[in-house]
Amino acid sequence: MVARAYTVAFEGVEARSVEVQCAVTPGMPAFSVVGLPDKAVSEARDRVRTALSSMAIALPSKRITINLSPADMPKEGSHFDLPIALSLLAALEVIPKDAVEGACALGELSLDGSLVPVVGALPAAMAAAEEDRTLLCPKASGAEAAWVGAANVIGAATLADVVRHYTGQSPLPPSEPGEVVGAPANRDLRDVKGQERAKRALEIAAAGRHHLMLVGTPGSGKSMLAARLPGLLPPLSAIEALETSMVHSLAGILDEGGISRDRPFREPHHTASMAAIVGGGRRAGPGEISLAHNGVLFMDEFPEFPRAVLETLRQPIESGEVMVARANAHVNYPCRFMLVAAANPCKCGYLSDPARACSRAPICGEDYMGRISGPLMDRFDLRVDVPPVAFTDLDLPASGDSSATVAARVAEARAIQQERFRDTPDMRLNADAEGEVLTKVATPDEAGRALLSKVAERFGLSARGYHRVLRVARTIADLGGSDAVGRDHVAEAVSYRLNGAAES
């Protein structure tokens, strides 16, 4: 007689159903796990045996075989412990077989029988809902998984609690969804003295999710400006929060078992590897670009990143998703993020200051910024020079709008865009617009078209650059509450496009 339990195997953000079969047959005593298990899954037999022993459940002197079906799919992770234990308990008739077959289980077992939280509870709950099964998981993962309202989620602290639940001795209550309360914003845009043009660019980038490049001398405020960007962005919508949290669940970085409505702000160091930025590693996990999905990826000292790492950003920036291809895995991760890059103008950082520049100026600046390829630079919608601020200006009172005021304008502009693209699910903001949709919503008036044509011919705008100017102009018009894109909107968009860099 074969007993069955169900769990999932992860391929990117997708959770594939796995049937855990257990057969207890006569023969030499043995406990084997088959079906392409990795080391963590193979070791589950020892954890399960010891956990059952702690509950005074002795294994029979027979051959125990666990098969993970489909057998040709690689199985990775410690979350297979609980379904293996359930199938074995069902085979031993400790718990009802039909109850076990109606659940999708995942969880790691400690030697004393307690359940340890595992990654991927949220995608697993999605898969359980699709198959109309109850999700059984560790109690610490229940608040995260319960966000999938279509799935009934049961969180258990120990394996003994699971047994009592299925035998009717002490049924477990359904888990309630939890939400991580975001930290209060304590970085205000008014703290940045001067830099009004950079602040304006930051507002435009936030409103339309446009990619932004900040170039300036050391200490001019590039990192300070970028750090205030999260305070300008509206909270994640319910759909965006679920999308982002599924990636964070796989990476194991969801705090307190809940979903946050704060937009992610990732700032990897320039020594990060390609696998850390794009995704990969032994389990082809998500990288920083996917962890920044629906949020911001801030890359300080941009030219210092390895050239190969920078070039891998080109395709994800355009498509909004990345495929991590390995010999044994091909997985897709979403990565619709806003890229904010900061760079010094040259290696020494003082190219514009003759008194402090090195002896290789201006060649050093060309060599340093030359580390960023033309095709990658072409993908930045806004390019802003951040000049140094005189120390005498640091004592001046705060000027300009506060983060709250700018955030209100950004929210209004994004609301306009959501209404505009409500019938095109692949497009949410102006940065996503393309093809006929872009032509329809962003074509400027006659004066604007004339200016854009003149600029395109004079500076040799690429087709990508031409369309990105249109998108930025549309965002500027939205911030101004204008239905039409006019000459002034195009002129401002062009000024950011050509600022500090010639077209490649």
Q: Mind summarizing the main beta sheet?
A: 5 strands, parallel
Roughly what percent helix? 25-40%
Shape by Cα distribution:
elongated
Distance N terminus to C terminus? 69 Å
Q: Taking all residues together, what is the mean pLDDT?
A: 91
Task: List the quaternary state of the chains.
Answer: single chain
Low-confidence stretches: 500-504
Calculate Rg over CA atoms: 27 Å
Helix/strand/pairing class, anyone?
Answer: alpha/beta
Structure description:
This protein is α/β, with parallel strands linked by helices. It has 21 helices and 20 strands. Strand 8 (134-138), helix 6 (139-145) and strand 9 form a beta-alpha-beta unit. The longest helix is centred in the C-terminal third of the chain and has 18 residues, at 403-420. Mean pLDDT is 91; it is low at 500-504.
Topology:
Elements: E1 2-11, E2 14-25, E3 30-34, H1 39-42, H2 44-54, E4 63-69, H3 81-91, H4 97-101, E5 103-105, E6 108-109, E7 115-116, H5 121-130, E8 134-138, H6 139-145, E9 153-156, H7 159-166, E10 179-180, H8 196-208, E11 212-216, H9 222-227, H10 238-251, E12 259-260, E13 265-266, H11 274-278, E14 279-280, E15 285-286, H12 288-291, E16 296-299, H13 307-311, H14 314-319, E17 321-326, E18 329-334, E19 338-343, H15 363-369, H16 374-377, E20 382-386, H17 403-420, H18 435-442, H19 446-459, H20 463-479, H21 487-497
Parallel strand pairs: 3-4, 5-8, 8-9, 10-12, 11-19, 11-20, 13-16, 16-19
Antiparallel strand pairs: 1-2, 2-4, 6-7, 14-15, 17-18
Helix pairs in contact: 2-3, 5-6, 8-17, 8-20, 19-21, 20-21
